[in-house]
Hints:
Elements: E1 10-12, E2 20-22, H1 39-43, E3 46-47, E4 54-55, E5 59-60, E6 69-70, H2 72-75, E7 82-84, E8 87-89, H3 96-100, H4 104-107, E9 112-115, E10 121-123, E11 134-135, E12 140-142, H5 151-154, E13 171-172, E14 179-180, H6 197-200, E15 210-213, E16 222-226, H7 234-237, E17 245-250, E18 256-260, E19 264-266, H8 283-314, E20 322-323, E21 328-329, H9 363-366, H10 386-389, E22 395-399, E23 405-409, E24 418-421, E25 425-427, H11 429-441, E26 449-453, E27 456-459, E28 463-464, E29 471-472, E30 478-485, E31 488-495, E32 504-507, H12 539-553, E33 582-583, E34 592-593, E35 624-625, E36 632-633, E37 643-644, E38 651-652
Parallel strand pairs: 9-12, 20-28, 21-25, 29-32
Antiparallel strand pairs: 1-2, 3-4, 5-6, 7-8, 9-10, 11-12, 13-14, 15-16, 15-19, 16-17, 17-18, 22-23, 23-32, 24-31, 25-27, 26-27, 30-31, 33-34, 35-36, 37-38
Amino acid sequence: QICESYGESLLACEGECCSVFHLECLGLKAVPEEKFICAECKNGEHTCFSCKLPGKDVKRCSVSTCGKFYHESCVRKFATALFESRGFRCPQHCCTACSMDKDMHKASKGRMARCLRCPVAYHSGDGCIAAGSLFVSSHILICSNHSKRTHSSSAVNVGFCFVCARGGKLLCCESCPASFHPECLSIEMPEGCWNCNDCKAGKKLRYKQIVWVKLGNYRQWWPAEICNPRSVPLNIQGLKHDIGDFPVFFFGSHDYYWVHQGRVFPYVEGDKSFAEGQTSINKTFKKALEEAAKRFQELKAQRESKEALEIERNSRKPPPYKHIKSNKVIGKVQIQVADLSEIPRCNCKPSDENPCGLESECLNRMLQYECHPQVCPAGERCQNQCFTKRLYPDAEIIKTERRGWGLRTKRSIKKGEFVNEYVGELIDEEECRLRIKRAHENSVTNFYMLTVTKDRIIDAGPKGNYSRFMNHSCNPNCETQKWTVNGDIRVGLFALCDIPAGMELTFNYNLDCLGNGRTECHCGAENCSGFLGVRPKTAFATANEEKVKNAKLKQKKRKIKTEQKQMHEDNCFQCGDGGELVMCDKKDCPKAYHLLCLNLTQPPFGKWECPWHQCDVCSNPAVSFCEFCPHSFCKDHEKGALVPSALDGRLCCSAHD
């Protein structure tokens, strides 16, 4: 960490930083007998690996073997940093080149070569490492960002615009040969130094890339291939060069030379036509153009073949994720745990045929509460503990024709049966927005986020179970339900109908579309809306579409009566509070009640009329009603029982002032 040199006799710090030092660099002659801890670990003030400022407010990377420290504000600037429940994984565990290619899954996998001076890492091999990086060891390098060249003396710019290929008044990049007309970029001519978008984003040239090179005072740009320093002749390796310099092989002349990014720009397909129409072209240059075009096609074919193999390999199995059995908390979100005294107790008995089962009258099941094994009267026979016991029917991940991966049941499932729990990372709204923003920046189009409450969202993207593979359908066979399990709200998937074995499991995402774009739906249902987030066609509309069409053609006037769905009040008519309510089944009656306000322990069976429709005195059908409580009276007992109130003359009983 002091001289940046590789070698033997390295002494490792046994503190948090995992750093190693030469004995001579520490001023030591022999390995100390006691435990060695460096100065930073002793005083607790570690230096931020990004901004290089020390402090006690820095946090350590969660990877045990890393030892790098960062200010949270510094590490959040890197799209390659990954935030987890235990902290964050720093950018040195994600390939910078792959992340720029928007391949985040590939970016975090494989062996890395890490920069000794900054939070940059690349996959080992010529495909990702930036040209001009200096290797210290097989897995440690100093990246090309640390070149000692100044911007003012490094770049040699082209004399034409990279957009329209014409000359004129050009805006020149300070770091590479790129030049542009300000109007082609739709900007005003800036003052002072300016860098193109590729240089601002940190895009680097790579080994085995075909480029145009300007060497010395030669007027002509010449085609060449960037070479790995270890693959060039020894006499070329021995030529003077610095960090940021890389050797190139010139086509035509077959010479080697060391250059830097300021004198090189990428060759693109079709550049062979650069010399077409020129009569006084040099034979060597013409040969160079032909060799460059041929080599470009060879490298392109190799790259496409490698990509095809990777796509074919990836098509055999779903994209990587971490399989978990229960929700994992991220950040400030908390999982609620209820006291045993707070958990509701149902009235089922162990002697019942299927206690707390699907077809039982279990009060907890009706109110979407899971029974607790220590509270439920049915004890071990209780059948309402599917979340806790993870009683999922066997299912398998399948590849669908147009909707990616899906989930298929291996056995038949009954209507109302528990299918799976939707699990993942529990995050808050702020973290959700950050993840969506990061996903858009990296061109990620698959989202696995499901809202539980306003500030509790399940993200099954990085971690989850088989439920994350369930596809959307406008005519689904499953639905999501929010259940209370041991005091905490969890999301389960339940069958909407009988599902035969071998059928794909689906549910309606009810997606709120992000931005103005809409995702096309490929569910194939008869009532498909065509897009995710758009309400599916109703069964009535689908079934009668042809009839309505025929009716218009025959010019018949037909009134189609649609039955209005009965709307009930949101508060109990007895106490005025909200919550879990029982609705009156009498036509046009909007009243609803708490079970306790009705002195009931479980919801009434069958069609039920509320107390408002029976006389308080004789229980005969009521004809006069108090508009503020369930008191009502029949024709024989209505006299003097109700009087007009001060509120618009509405009738009230003697219980109200």
